[in-house]
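Collaborator request log, item 7. Partner lab (contact: R.S.) asked for a structural prediction of Aspartate aminotransferase family protein to inform their binding assays.
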Amino acid sequence: MTNAEDLQKAAQDHLWMHFTRHGSYAGGEVPMIVRGEGAYIYDVHGKRYLDGLAGLFVVQAGHGRSELAEAAAKQAQELAFFPLWSYAHPKAVELAARLAEAAPGDLNRVFFTTGGGEAVETAWKLAKQYFKLVGKPLKHKVISRQIAYHGTPHGALSITGIPPFKQAFEPLVPGSVRVPNTNYYRAEEISGFPGLTPEQYGRWAADRVAAAIEMEGPDTVAAVFVEPVQNAGGCFPPPPGYFQRLREICDRYDVLLVSDEVICAYGRLGTMFGGQKFGYVPDIITSAKGLTSGYSPLGAMICSDRLFEPFATGTEMFGHGFTFGGHPVSSAVALANLDLFEREDLLGHVTRNESIFRSTLERLLDLPIVGDVRGSGYFWGIELVKDKNTKETFSADESERLLRGFLSKALFEAGLYCRADDRGDPVIQLAPPLIAGPKEFDEIESILRSVLTEAWARL
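Returned to partner:
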């Protein structure tokens, strides 16, 4: 296919896009991205866009990095594929050792997958089998947070706290329970208590996990799944002390704390792992996305030594795996990506620029439609409201018209690729490549200001 028209026809006739209302493209054009460079992407017509979402929270090192492409090509020539089913290959071994060294506490064992949903599935299955092996076979349930997204495989979707995502696929895997999230902007609405400080709300939210464990029965709950900064709903950072309290609760009830860092790991918050940003050590980390900066698919579940111990000797086996988990080419790309992180000090770059990014976005708070700006590192959400004083949100119909009917398309046409998200209250999410800086922040703010001003006028 040599031209844009041929690509459009083939896309309309054959490509089934993910999470896409295909009817919205009937008689229209599917956006076609053909290349990327640095923090920018280009469509088939040559128009440039600022990649305000790093693809999908993925392209940490930026687009067009020849060193990552070269690492993939070199490994493909040397050993393109071999599975990790009772065999090993050097790149997977080297990467596992490197991740174990970077991970907090005694998280020294790495199980590779091809993506984040698979890593979450792996963590839940491991939790179930582990407790069977240590004499607590009833422990199988998991607790997660409202509006939290943990993936689309059957188990991961069961853990996900977004009912509209789940309805078409019910019945799902039983044994998943929801608790309140850390949305401090709506703390009074969620908790029923006015005037809570962030610390008080964090304590209240963490204690709801303890209450859920007691309600379900401590002998039935295996794990709590939480993100360092919750993605769905619009980047909810943890209130001070939240994770420390959650760690205490998990220890008290012998429940595994799973830190789902598919988005938050590998520099997104300015640390290698998200838990390091907020001072807690989980039992399991699930990760993917930024591990290779998207140059090849790869995910990883990283767990503590004690969870591997029942499998270390004898005949016991974790009967779980994926054909392409720990793929040699992906592993080589991940190693080159981590080298690049160190060489260019991407973690330090995010840490140094985080406050600038935040203050740039907070300039938008003078707009009547912007209710809250929240997040951490290079991961931010802007909540849109109907009334700033009362925090009144939009109705379902208004949100549909605002986000899908106008904002998503208008932002893209203005040169900014980001996410207008309606999985909770309406938000705009931003997570640019980690190489971005003040120039890109100003460009993001300028486009958002223009489009949000028009959106308010339309309302």
